[in-house]
Design goal:
Mean pLDDT: 84
Number of domains: 2
Number of strands: 0
CATH topology of the largest domain: Tetracycline Repressor, domain 2
Distance between the termini: 102 Å
Helix content: over 70%
Structural class: mainly alpha
Order of helices and strands: HHHHHHHHHHH
Low-confidence stretches: 1-11
Number of helices: 11
CATH class of the largest domain: Mainly Alpha
């Protein structure tokens, strides 16, 4: 009786771009959940199922080059989170943007923390520039949805301040084991922006104009209306106590 030998597993040599993509994908998964200094080239090679010299062949600059390439790829993914059609109430658009942003944070927890907290041995002027590009892109998109074609210094500062607050809240959210739930955090961040806009509108005509345009597109039962009713209740309650 004869037995048939099992067929040899088919092997396909990867192209340069495919191999580079494979290594980058392995690095992204590692950097997403570990600080850069905790990831070695051996870790990347093992995760990709290749040898350390092969990693060097595609990334001759070593771990720093691999990290910066992975960071650029993650930054591009994060920048895509901010793209949203200019249709419907602005706060609903912003809600969808924040949903995507928080999903990104959730999926890149330790790596996101290391990236924004700074102090990593892998941090350079190039990595800082990549992060700043994402922040600027986010600010520009928010200003577009506020209908501010030529934003002045105060409105630009307000938006950038809010972005800094979103980053800080995201880091605290990770420290607090992702509590409150992401939808609650999203709504709170939207309320935060609306409150900043309302406060600034009292003394800045351009912000007041942006708020006016936003109100025309908002639903009465949306975040703006909800916040306005809450402030009104607090005002009336304070007036009764006097």
């Amino acid at each position: 009786m004869t037995t048939t030998a099992p067929a040899a597993r088919a092997y396909r040599r990867l192209s340069v771009e495919e191999r580079r993509g494979q290594l980058l994908g392995a690095a992204l998964r590692l950097f997403a959940h570990q600080a850069p200094e905790d990831v070695s080239l051996d870790d990347v090679a093992e995760a990709a199922g290749v040898s350390r010299p092969l990693v060097y062949r595609y990334f001759p600059g070593g771990k720093q080059q691999l990290y910066e390439t992975a960071l650029r790829s993650a930054a591009d993914e994060l920048r895509r989170c901010f793209g949203e059609p200019q249709a419907g109430p602005p706060t609903e658009r912003l809600g969808r943007v924040l949903d995507r942003y928080l999903a990104f944070v959730d999926g890149h927890d330790a790596g996101f923390s290391a990236l924004l907290r700074g102090g990593s041995v892998a941090e350079t002027s190039r990595t800082t520039a990549i992060v700043d590009e994402v922040r600027r892109a986010a600010a520009e998109q928010i200003l577009v949805h506020l209908g501010a074609e030529r934003p002045g210094a105060r409105l630009r500062m307000l938006v950038r301040t809010w972005i800094a607050a979103v980053e800080a809240a995201s880091l605290i959210w990770l420290d607090e084991r992702k509590q409150p739930p992401a939808p609650e955090l999203r709504d709170w961040l939207i309320d935060h922006l609306v409150a900043l806009l309302a406060a600034s509108a009292a003394t800045d005509p351009q912000t007041a104009e942006a708020i006016g345009g936003l109100l025309e597109l908002e639903r009465p039962d949306g975040p703006v209306g909800r916040l306005a009713r809450g402030v009104l209740r607090m005002t009336e309650s304070a007036a009764r106590r006097r």
